[in-house]
User: Fold this.
Amino acid sequence: MNIKTERLIISPLRETDKEAYFRNISHDRKVLETFICRYAETPEDFDFSVYLANQSLYAIRLKETGRLIGIMVTCDETETSCEIGYGIGSDYWGHGYATEAVAAFIDWCFAERGFKTVCASFFTGNEASRHVMEKCGMAFDRFSEKELTYLGIERDLTYYSISREAWKGRKTKMDRPVTTLYMLMSVDGKISTGASDELDVDRDFPMINGLKEGLHQYYEIEQTTDLWSFNTGRVQEKMGVNRKELPAKSPVSFAILDNHHLTEQGVRYFCAWAKTFVLITSNRSHPAFDVQEENLHIIIQEKTDLPGALMQLKKDFGCERLTVQSGGTVNGLFLREKLFDYVDLVVAPVLIGGKDTSSLIDGPSLMSREELSGLGILKLESCSVLENSYIRLRYQVIS
Assistant:
């Protein structure tokens, strides 16, 4: 095992590490206060062979010099989980080395070892270690009272953990645009006026007293959203793009997920409208292949891969921020894949009902407690009362 980061290397211990290990770990009182390991008074009293024989113990080295500055360890391994521990010599504190090493080690545990859960613990009250874990995507798991330490002193431990699903979402997030789900919905969470394709809020709300008066606010806010918009061919088909005349050019770029709803006219509509138009499809016979426009780009996928599509949007087209306005089913995929960063909702003063009416989030339901990590936990950023009984809610997605 040889993990490399920007500044560090994590690799097995070597005999030449004895002096640095003694100085930075086993003889460092500050480290001993936060990490369970044996204390040695002098290098001569230090039996390094015990550590060399431990195949779960690894050195954290500076890439530039190769010098050991800390250690990583795995313990309590099962087929699906492990606990990790870490310690950095106090001479090297304050440089972000612990966060850099722990993040890389977690990556290795999931990508190379195949664990489904990784946890770590710290003495309750050690805020520095808690911050390291949180920066690496770990979240509070549990308290464990009066654990026995190496000095025989009982101290409480706090456990943090991260699941494979959360890790995948975090890794993807670094390489994809920041996404905001921006939708108009009813008080009961419906984004259509009914289950028929003939029914649609954009067409129906302007005709309904009590709704039409405040509807303009949704479209005015929409004009201030990101300059990249994600939508689906099905939603745009309902909006009539396959039949409309070509629009004037706008400053907005569009990413459309579609296999068969857009016709050639619909594709040309977006080419005329968009600054950049990216079609995401698994249909190699899509009408877009018959259209030759400079601003048209096609992402071909064997099957729908939203994380992959978002990463390609950022890498190949410079998409840094993306507003999502797709249907409930695709919104559900975004949710389960942990691809939402913010949720921005304009709530219309209406109840719609109907179990078959499209909701803000549709798709398969969760069926067991083991799937609860698929929930989207939100933190309210703002709540604005608009005119005519409309409300705007903006949330940050925290997990």
About this structure: The radius of gyration is 27 Å. The mean pLDDT is 90. The chain has twelve helices and 17 strands.
